[in-house]
Amino acid sequence: MHGSRSPAEGSAPTAAPAGGPGEPAISEQAWSDALSLFRKYGDGEGGIVLACHINPDGDALGSMLATGLGLRQLGIPVQASFSNPFRLAQSLTAIAGRELLVPPEEVNARPDLFVTFDTGSVDRLGDLAPLVASAGEVIVVDHHVTNAGFGTRNLIDPKAAATAVVVDDLLRRLGVTVDAEIAECLYVGLSTDTASFRGAATTPSTHELAARLLATGIKPDEISRRLYDARPMRSLHLLADVLARVTLDPAAAGGGGLSWTYVTQDDLARHGLGMEWVEGVVDMLRGAEESTIALVAKQIGPDQWSVSLRSRGPIDVGALCVRLGGGGHRISAGFTGHGPLEGVVAQVVAALAPDPVPVTR
């Protein structure tokens, strides 16, 4: 029987996102409850729908497809989808399991079980957000510390380097054999969310998981080339335009400095490219020694901006973005800004102040 929860009613976590010192982030009871739902609804009339956030990155898509392939291995049918624009970034068009994807319009609107991946809040599901309320049960699989847990069951481990790490544990507990296809999906998620194993979240266990995945026979050189090194020449021209207008505000962040730039819809149209080709710009800005905070504002509509923030200092941009209506991690986060670009940047500068100005939205 399907419930009638609103997203707000479904937001109270049933398990703490993180355990205390020495305790696992996900309790055994939470695992047991989630596994029972997969088994219960594996052949149910409403079925299982898997979803990840809008404009999925490697961790979101890889985690979702790895789970879909694992469930298919167990004979459990699933639908996997994400919100419009229903288009994969070029770097992800060859990922294993992509045949499981269906457009959001074709997804069962009232599934027995709805499972989300790498999605910190309901609004990030876009067109699929209503399924949080219409589904019989909702499992949230994530590693964002800002995820309060909007599911009826929550598998959230903020200590995990990627959502793919949580999915690897999920598949093991389900009795799935990680073959080369599943391993490719998990490796894509692990690589992208650790900045190719350069991020602070990379641990010995991260490399141990990577080693297990490589042992299935996947080719890391081919995967990495698709993810990081294959791009059209015109993307370099777009990158040149965006980097040419990088601005430094040395007084921002209490004197730590803010480096920022922006991308408009006109920029993308002029070069005939999608937003995927500027996703890595914020990490380039983070390398500037004159600033501790990097910001890239990407225009997604009239007076609407997808804002990415990075920190290489003590400032927690995840907490900052929560105050601005978004979320993320301590050193990597984002939010949606509304209004003129100058006002959106000024809002961030005000929030970065030692005595921040209260946020009004």
What's the gist of this structure?
The chain has 361 residues and is α/β, with parallel strands linked by helices. The chain has helices at 28-40, 58-73, 131-134, 163-174, 180-193, 204-214, 220-229, 233-244, 265-271, 281-286, 317-323, 341-352, and strands at 48-52, 78-81, 113-117, 137-142, 153-156, 247-249, 258-263, 293-301, 304-311, 327-328, 332-338.
Label the structural class: alpha/beta
CA-based shape: globular
Q: How many structurally independent domains?
A: 2
Q: Count the beta strands.
A: 11
Which sheet architecture does the biggest sheet show? 6 strands, mixed
- Report Rg: 20 Å
CATH superfamily of the largest domain: inorganic pyrophosphatase (n-terminal core)
- As for the CATH topology of the largest domain, it is inorganic pyrophosphatase (n-terminal core)
Which bin fits the share of residues in helices? 25-40%
Describe this structure in words.
- The chain is of the alpha/beta class and 361 residues long.
- It has two domains: 9-228, Alpha-Beta Complex (inorganic pyrophosphatase (n-terminal core)); 233-352, Diaminopimelate Epimerase, Chain A, domain 1.
- It is 34% helix and 16% strand.
- The chain contains twelve helices and eleven strands.
- It has helices at 28-40, 58-73, 131-134, 163-174, 180-193, 204-214, 220-229, 233-244, 265-271, 281-286, 317-323, 341-352, and strands spanning 48-52, 78-81, 113-117, 137-142, 153-156, 247-249, 258-263, 293-301, 304-311, 327-328, 332-338.
- The protein has a six-stranded mixed beta sheet.
- Strand 8 and strand 9 form a beta hairpin.
- The protein is globular, with a radius of gyration of 20 Å.
- The two termini are 38 Å apart.
- The model is unreliable at 3-17 and 357-361 (pLDDT under 50).
